[in-house]
Specification:
Elements lengths: L1 H8 L3 H108 L1 H5 L3 H12 L4 E8 L14 H9 L5 H11 L3 E8 L7 E8 L1 H94 L2 H15 L16 H156 L4 H134 L4
Antiparallel strand pairs: 1-3, 2-3
């Protein structure tokens, strides 16, 4: 206590003690200021770097969002163009096939009608039966496809005059055609008209042409059917493209909205993490400043007390020696290899030894800290490389899964559109099958009517043959009457001769014989006239029978043609049924493929979501490892200032 009083009362040591206390206070304040300033600068630097990195991440995410939107727009346009091209190609193919089928059916029906009319008209042409021919023309006009019809004789002279003068098309043909009569002008104009088909059917029952049937058939049903089909296909194409665009736009908008939502979430998480890291570093810095302040104050107090004790015991020389040694130690700028060299066996020497031990302890601590810092640097570097590789791998996995999901979604859309197209084609096949069935029914009905007509014609031929046979019998009777008349005439002549021989008594008998002879002559003359008429009747009957037989042969040929047409229609119907079954199988297959593609799309979407979550976790770990690496590097720089 006396030594302390001596030190405090010493005029030599008091300024030194006061100066030491002042310097210790200044050093403590400077240490606190430097520590606080360094901590604040470190916090500011970390926050600045985090802000810069966060801005870069935001820019990259925004660019990725814009790229996704552009890719969706390009994909929408590409899908629309491909779909439009495929549907247009299919429309052209269906249009050509339908036009060919309709025109073939119309041409075959019209040709059969012309053949039938030509088969039943010879008798009316021979008889110049214009009303009957006109009736045939009116029957032809009952078909909605027939625009005009007319008969010509073998010399090209018109036999009928009936025309549908209420038809605008007929009026147009009458104005634009060339010819010496109305029907000729109409036929001339119809041959040049794209909406009409002109059928010229020769009438040759006996091998010689006795006339011609001209039939004008309208192609309006074919054109209207084609236009209706094309309009329906165009509407379907527009609807399909609009639906695809709407679906892709809707899906793209949802995807972009979800992406933007996730980007905002990532941005908020980054901001929150940045604030949390800043607060954590600031809290750690404040705690470090507090600890260093406490250590500095305690060290300063210990140093002042030690100095007071030493100065109280030793002389100023020893104090100066110790002061010089401490100044040498403090001037080393972190060189922990230097030691305080003071000889003696007093408190100053012990204090110097303690200081040297303290420096050794600090040296060992700093050495351990350096080794731990280097090891931590290696570990952090390895961890950072691993997180970078994991981040790249998850990013590639996410991209691959996203591409696969987009591809499968596109395949699912394509399969769905193909399924719709197949369903529409299946409806068209159903309509074609119904039309084929109706055509087959009509053909069978026409064949039945022709068979009935053939039966009637054969019955008529039998009646005419019976009439011819009866006329032959009448000829026999006439021959008998003629023979009787000749014998009567001969008997009358003999009677007249005998009456002449008898003289006056036989005159009355001669008058009677003369009357009998005149009656026999008239009977013979009448018999010859009747025989001539019977010969003409038999000739006409033979011609009628020949014409009827020719008509029957033509009708049989028509029946055979109708039968072949029925067989072809049956073949077409079977092919259409097979095509219908094939399209039903295709529809089932496309439905199954669409269902599987949707399931695959759902699974890939889940994979993409999991990959995104994995990428976010790995990216967060990478950011944390980068921050840890930065802090370790800064700590290593601080520790490297000490020389051990």
């Amino acid at each position: 206590m006396s030594k302390q009083s001596f030190a405090l009362n010493s005029r030599l040591l008091r300024p030194v003690i006061i100066a030491i206390i002042f310097l210790a206070g200044i050093q403590t304040l400077l240490t606190i200021f430097l520590t606080t300033s360094g901590g604040k600068n470190l916090i500011s630097d970390i926050r600045s770097r985090l802000s810069v990195e966060n801005g870069k991440v935001s820019d990259e995410l925004q660019a990725a969002s814009e790229g996704v939107q552009a890719q969706i727009s390009r994909m929408t346009q590409s899908v629309s163009d491909d779909l439009s091209a495929k549907l247009q190609l299919q429309l052209e193919q269906e249009k050509k096939a339908t036009v060919a089928l309709l025109e073939s059916s119309l041409m075959e029906t019209s040709r059969n009608m012309a053949v039938l009319l030509a088969a039943v008209s010879p008798q009316a042409i021979w008889d110049r039966d214009t009303p009957q021919l006109t009736q045939y023309v009116k029957m032809a006009h009952e078909s909605e496809h027939v625009v005009f019809a007319g008969f010509y004789d073998g010399y090209g002279k018109r036999l009928t005059r009936y025309l549908n003068r209420k038809s605008d098309l007929v009026k147009e043909l009458m104005k634009t055609g060339d010819g010496d009569n109305t029907l000729s002008r109409i036929v001339d104009a119809a041959k040049k008209h794209e909406r009409l088909i002109v059928i010229e059917q020769p009438i040759n029952p006996n091998g010689a042409v006795i006339g011609q049937l001209v039939l004008g058939v309208s192609r309006d049903s074919v054109i209207q059917g084609t236009q209706k089909m094309e309009s329906g296909f165009n509407a379907l194409i527009d609807q399909s493209i609009s639906s695809v665009k709407a679906s892709i736009d809707s899906g793209g908008a949802q995807s972009v909205a979800e992406l933007l939502k996730r980007l905002d979430s990532i941005q908020r998480n980054n901001d929150s993490a940045r604030e949390s890291i800043g607060k954590s570093i600031e809290s750690s810095s404040d705690e470090l400043v507090t600890h260093m302040t406490l250590v500095s104050v305690i060290s300063a107090l210990v140093l002042v007390v030690v100095l007071v004790i030493v100065l109280s015991v030793r002389l100023l020389r020893r104090v100066n020696v110790l002061t010089d040694a401490l100044e040498d130690l403090s001037a080393g700028e972190g060189d922990l290899t230097r030691r305080i060299k003071v000889s003696g066996n007093d408190e100053i020497t012990e204090m110097a030894d303690k200081v040297n031990h303290f420096v050794v302890a600090i040296q060992m601590i700093i050495n351990d800290v350096q080794q731990l810092s280097r090891h931590t640097t290696d570990v952090v570097s390895t961890m950072h490389k691993g997180t970078l590789q994991a981040s790249e791998a998850t990013e590639r996995q996410q991209g691959a899964a996203s591409d696969a999901s987009s591809s499968v979604a596109y395949i699912a859309e394509s399969v769905s559109e193909e399924s719709k197209s197949v369903a529409e084609t299946l409806k068209n096949v159903d309509r074609i099958r119904e039309e084929t069935t109706q055509s087959s029914v009509i053909s069978r009905q026409v064949r039945h009517d022709i068979e009935v007509l053939v039966t009637d014609v054969e019955n008529t031929a039998e009646v005419i043959n019976s009439l011819a046979s009866q006329s032959d019998q009448i000829g026999d009777v006439l021959d008998m009457i003629k023979s009787i008349a000749e014998q009567t005439n001969l008997l009358a002549l003999n009677a007249a001769i005998e009456a002449a021989r008898a003289g006056e008594t036989g005159r009355g008998f001669a008058v009677v014989a003369d009357e009998v002879r005149m009656l026999a002559s008239k009977t013979q003359q009448s018999t010859e006239d009747i025989e001539q008429q019977i010969i003409e009747l038999q000739s006409g009957t033979q011609k009628a029978v020949q014409a009827i037989n020719n008509a029957s042969e033509i009708a049989r040929n028509s029946i055979e043609g109708m039968r072949q047409s029925d067989e072809r229609l049956a073949t077409v119907s079977a092919s259409v049924d097979n095509l219908h079954r094939m399209f039903e199988e295709i529809t089932d297959m496309t439905s199954d493929q669409s269902s599987r593609a949707q399931s695959m799309t759902h699974a890939l979407e889940q994979i993409v979501a999991e990959a995104k979550m994995t990428f976010e976790v790995v990216d967060h770990a990478a950011a944390t490892s980068r921050e840890l690496e930065s802090l370790v590097n800064e700590l290593d720089q601080k520790v490297e200032r000490f020389k051990v």
